[in-house]
Design goal:
By secondary structure, the protein is of the alpha/beta class. It is built from 9 helices and 14 strands.
């Protein structure tokens, strides 16, 4: 929803709530952007808050209340998922624009609370689906946008993370790819066929997820924490071509012009170097400064979460 309050000129006073891995990355990138003035960092662990704040010349706070009252224009919410809604809603009601890390919230009801708060207060609510801003994903989207997509295959696998969080691979990893599928097809997932397994974690650590979209596209996600090496690949088949992207190296290859002998012509597609997180934060600032809807809306985040919870049998 467009802003209903006067637009601000000059850098936006930005805070980051939760300075774990993603919160620190947001702070690192935002501190070097002219669009933002990084003023406040929140973490309940005082040593963590003070250490990260000192690195970027920001003020540390250790309570959500102090963060919400810090006089911010905008905030990144990178706390554990279960706190997203309470912190996000409080900020939105304070008139602060919010970029919330994926998933938007722990439950659909909490996601809706955030969406409603953003609308009621005329504030931007954007969801941090950072792979949307991966140059390789953007290149694939351009390559297939004028063609009919048949199928999408995404592989996102790797070793167990050093610290296990509160969620399994569907919420932690597959939410990225659910969003990519919706983004590439401009269509909604209507059928879900999940296969889940648990080996070493309290939640699922292996998932094979099959989908059908309302435009007929079929899609498949393979994701796990049991592969000893990290792989991030995206493959899209259309009626005239086959496009393969490595989301880590950002190399994109297009196969086209199939010959009678089964061979294809190939070409490498340009994938411009850019840090996805910086592009995401730039998009957040643009939405705030123009009053236009953000690149990844609260409704996008809610739909991604709904699909993920369906995969888990929790929706």
């Amino acid at each position: 929803m467009p802003n209903t309050l006067p637009l601000k000129t000059g850098p936006l006073k930005l805070g980051v709530a939760g300075v774990g891995v993603m919160g620190r990355n947001h702070a690192r990138v935002a501190a070097d952007m002219r669009e933002f003035d990084l003023t406040t960092l929140f973490d309940p662990d005082a040593v963590t808050a003070e250490g990260v704040a000192a690195a970027y010349g920001a003020a540390p706070v250790t309570t959500a209340e102090a963060f919400i009252d810090a006089g911010l224009d905008a905030a990144v919410v990178a706390t554990p998922n279960r706190f997203h809604a309470d912190v996000g809603v409080a900020l939105l009601e304070k008139g602060v624009h919010v970029l919330v890390e994926k998933p938007i919230a722990a439950t659909v009801a909490d996601a809706q609370r955030m969406i409603d708060a953003a609308k009621a207060n005329g504030r931007v609510l954007m969801v941090g689906q950072v792979e949307r801003f991966n140059p390789a994903v953007e290149t694939v989207k351009r390559a297939v946008q004028d063609d009919d997509i048949i199928s999408i295959q995404i592989t996102r696998v790797g070793p167990f993370p050093p610290r296990m969080g509160e969620v399994g691979v569907v919420i932690d990893l597959a939410v990225h790819d659910i969003d990519i599928i919706r983004h590439l097809t401009a269509s909604e997932i209507v059928e879900v066929q999940p296969q889940l397994a648990r080996t070493r974690a309290e939640r699922e650590d292996t998932a094979l997820l099959q989908f059908r979209l309302d435009n007929g596209v079929i899609a498949h996600i393979t994701t796990n924490w049991v592969t000893p090496y990290k792989t991030r690949t995206l493959q899209v088949a259309t009626k005239t071509k086959f496009v393969v992207a490595d989301l880590i190296t950002r190399q994109v290859t297009e196969y086209f012009g199939q010959q009678p002998d089964g061979s294809y012509s190939t070409r490498m597609l340009n994938s411009w170097p850019a840090e996805p997180l910086r592009k995401e934060l730039e998009a957040f600032a643009t939405a705030i400064n123009t009053g236009e809807p953000p690149a990844v809306t609260g409704e996008d985040g809610l739909r991604n979460l709904e699909v993920a919870l369906r995969c888990l049998g929790e929706a």
